[in-house]
Amino acid sequence: MPVIMYDAPGPAEQQRIRTWTLAVAIPVLAILVWAVVTLQGQDLLSGDKWAVLGQPDLLLALMKGVGATLRVASVAVVLSLLFGLLLAIARMSPQRWVSVPARIWIEALRGLPELLLVFFIYLGVPAVTGSSISTFWALVAGLVLYASASMAEAFRGGFQALPRGQAEAASALGLRNLKTLRLVILPQVVRQIFPTLMSEMVRVTKASSLGFVIGYTELLLTGEHAIEYLGGEYAVPIFVAMAALYVIICLVLTQISHVLSARLSPTGKQPGSGRRTSRNRGEQPPPSNKNDEAPHSGAGPERRQQLREV
Amino acid sequence: MEHDSFMISTRDVQKWYGNYHALRDINFTVRTGEVVVVIGPSGSGKSTLCRTINRLETIDSGTIEIDGVPLPVESGPLAKLRSEVGMVFQQFNLFAHLSVVDNLMLAPVHVLGKKAHIARQRAMELLERVGLQGHEHKRPAQLSGGQQQRVAIARSLAMDPKVLLFDEPTSSLDPEMIKEVLDVIVELTKEGMTMVVVTHEMGFAQTAADRVVFMAEGRIVEENTPEAFFSACETDRAREFLSKVL
């Protein structure tokens, strides 16, 4: 599959590419070497420092941190999806007294830093109601306030991108509004905006590290406590371990999203692999064409054209 | 005019889009079992008329009755009525996320409350009837335009409608696929299905219609049997139109 934006380079261009490769690679290598030497000089890279990662207590604590991060993230993601959908529907309401407040709410919350929202809930709720709020729910609420507004916009984009005929066909068959939404519109909208929703979920997961500032013991704060307990000289290995854990969590989420979005593609096929799902087994193989390799190739006119010619 | 067994009857229907008078004084009737083909130039209001019959478009004044009952305005009764009036669209509008058989089963199961295995059996019969047996597990995107439109017709038939509305069913098809769709529609006319077909296919109008309705500028200009209309139409407007399309 040809890469968009890049033509095959000619000889002069190849020379230019080599020159620039060296021009970038040499300084980058130099910085890396300098960093390693500096850390080495302060004895931060020696084996006994890294051996701390083998300590069962530390590993257990970090795993607990991962668990706390995942708990907060999963509750926040589910609630954000729910409220995001409701906000999007309110925002598209033909009733102005519903759509205008929804729009103001969405715009205002998307413009606020999450940190502020988390603080606001954690300190504001006790001030107003007189009863304190747990760090878990303060963090969840702060994350949901922001993420639901941003998911609402994703949902709205998906609703608007869906051809009008889908809802019309459903109405013409006698389906009422809620069933049309549930059976025809939402499944297609979710497919359409799936990559956006997935990256928002990854973002929420990382943003759960804001629990740090209100004392919710998630992964980041766990690591911080461990460093305080064990000593600053273990900071580098522990931070690297935490970073690795965050990356692993997000990679797993991304991987799940790839598998799911392949399942959800309009032809029910795995993108790129040309493999057929069990539902298609025994049928004629679907035509393989370049478009099939694009992960989210829809049933656009070009595609239909190609299928006709088969 | 006799008043018994009109499947569709409209009286003095007016429809405006802003300042644009889309439907003017429409008095349109379809008897039970009758096949009425609506023709006319683009923008003549024929699609709009078709879409007002199941209230996908609202009207500004006049009345529309289906099977002797005024078109409901509340969503519950309206949904019930729509479940009895089949509609086939120019753009097919198959549910893109569902397989062919699921497209045919959705409304019977979720509107009529049929059991899944009964709806599936009926869906398979209908697919065979439109010549698409063996395609039941494909997604719409894997079918040609002609195949998609035949699935759409089968999807309407799955609801056992008492009348079928076709809104330019072949207008977005490649020429070589028009026939396979028209053949299915002609088959239905032979079975006595009550139908309104908005189309640009004059050959179809000549052979399959019981009556031809010619519209221009939002009015019904002329209506007659296909033989009379195509051999000796009465108005200049119709003559001008036919001279361009025949």
Topology summary:
The complex is a heterodimer of chains A (310) and B (246).
Chain A: H1 11-41, H2 47-50, H3 56-91, H4 96-110, H5 114-129, H6 135-161, H7 164-172, H8 177-207, H9 211-214, H10 219-230, H11 235-264, H12 301-308
Chain B: E1 6-17, E2 20-26, E3 29-31, E4 35-39, H1 46-53, E5 61-66, E6 69-70, H2 75-82, E7 85-88, H3 100-110, H4 116-129, H5 145-157, E8 163-167, H6 175-190, E9 195-198, H7 202-208, E10 211-216, E11 219-224, H8 226-231, H9 236-245
Parallel strand pairs in B: 4-9, 4-10, 7-8, 8-9
Antiparallel strand pairs in B: 1-2, 1-3, 1-5, 5-6, 10-11
Helix pairs in contact in B: 3-4, 3-5, 4-5, 5-6
Observed structural traits:
heterodimer; A: 310 residues; mainly alpha; 12 helices; disordered C terminus; B: 246 residues; alpha/beta; six-stranded mixed beta sheet; five-stranded antiparallel beta sheet; 9 helices; 11 strands; globular
Could you describe the 3D structure shown?
The complex is a heterodimer of chains A (310) and B (246). Chain A has 310 residues and is mostly helical. Helix content of chain A is 72%, strand content 0%. Chain A is globular. Chain B is α/β, with parallel strands linked by helices and 246 residues long. The longest helix of chain B has 16 residues, at 175-190. Classes of the chains: A mainly alpha (310), B alpha/beta (246). The interface between A and B is large, with 33 and 42 residues.
